[in-house]
Amino acid sequence: MGNTKSGAVSKEILEDLKLNTKFTENEIVQWYENFKRQCPTGRISKEEFQSIYSKFFPDSEANTYAQHVFRSFDANDDGTLDFKEYIIALHMTSTGKTNRKLEWAFSLFDVDKNGYITKSEVTEICTAIFKLIPKDEVANLADDENTAEKRADKLWKFFDKGENDRVAEGEFIQGVLDNDEALRLIQYQPFK
């Protein structure tokens, strides 16, 4: 009783998620029941995650971005997300506090997981983000951000670094906190 094999979320995971997310106990239990229904093994593969994620962006190509999101939340690098990793991913990408979101954003941009972000990593993630933007919205973008490369260049300038320099996590977070434009460039918010 109370363990994942019995079909109920364990007390330990429940308490941890209540402490580390904004979700209530009832919400977590509901998420868990849905998760177990969709993923009877208790784990979600990268492909399953991409399929779920792409439903949030039906007019876009979300697979590349979803792969990066998946990588950033696969804490133990086993190629799957367990329930806890999945809920933390949902929380961080939708409702997390700004500093926590920026810590996650840093891990998203740190493609090689070496603790630093390079200009090429910024370009890689900006390219994935750019693919989320529907074609009809691209035409409305400012001239200095209407391609993935221009967005990456614009974002990189906020960190005041040379082409071959690196940005540490603290510098990244402070650079984004200090500039609303940088915050906007590290994400895609569909026009409402």
Automatic annotation (TrEMBL):
<dbReference type="GO" id="GO:0005509">
    <property type="term" value="F:calcium ion binding"/>
</dbReference>
<keyword id="KW-0106">Calcium</keyword>
<dbReference type="Pfam" id="PF13499">
    <property type="entry name" value="EF-hand_7"/>
</dbReference>
<keyword id="KW-0479">Metal-binding</keyword>
<dbReference type="InterPro" id="IPR011992">
    <property type="entry name" value="EF-hand-dom_pair"/>
</dbReference>
<comment type="function">
    <text>May be involved in the calcium-dependent regulation of rhodopsin phosphorylation. Binds three calcium ions.</text>
</comment>
<comment type="similarity">
    <text>Belongs to the recoverin family.</text>
</comment>
<keyword id="KW-0519">Myristate</keyword>
<dbReference type="InterPro" id="IPR028846">
    <property type="entry name" value="Recoverin"/>
</dbReference>
<feature type="domain" description="EF-hand">
    <location>
        <begin position="61"/>
        <end position="96"/>
    </location>
</feature>
<dbReference type="GO" id="GO:0036368">
    <property type="term" value="P:cone photoresponse recovery"/>
</dbReference>
<protein>
    <submittedName>
        <fullName>Recoverin 3</fullName>
    </submittedName>
</protein>
<keyword id="KW-0677">Repeat</keyword>
<dbReference type="Pfam" id="PF13833">
    <property type="entry name" value="EF-hand_8"/>
</dbReference>
<keyword id="KW-0449">Lipoprotein</keyword>
<feature type="domain" description="EF-hand">
    <location>
        <begin position="97"/>
        <end position="132"/>
    </location>
</feature>
<dbReference type="InterPro" id="IPR002048">
    <property type="entry name" value="EF_hand_dom"/>
</dbReference>
<dbReference type="InterPro" id="IPR018247">
    <property type="entry name" value="EF_Hand_1_Ca_BS"/>
</dbReference>
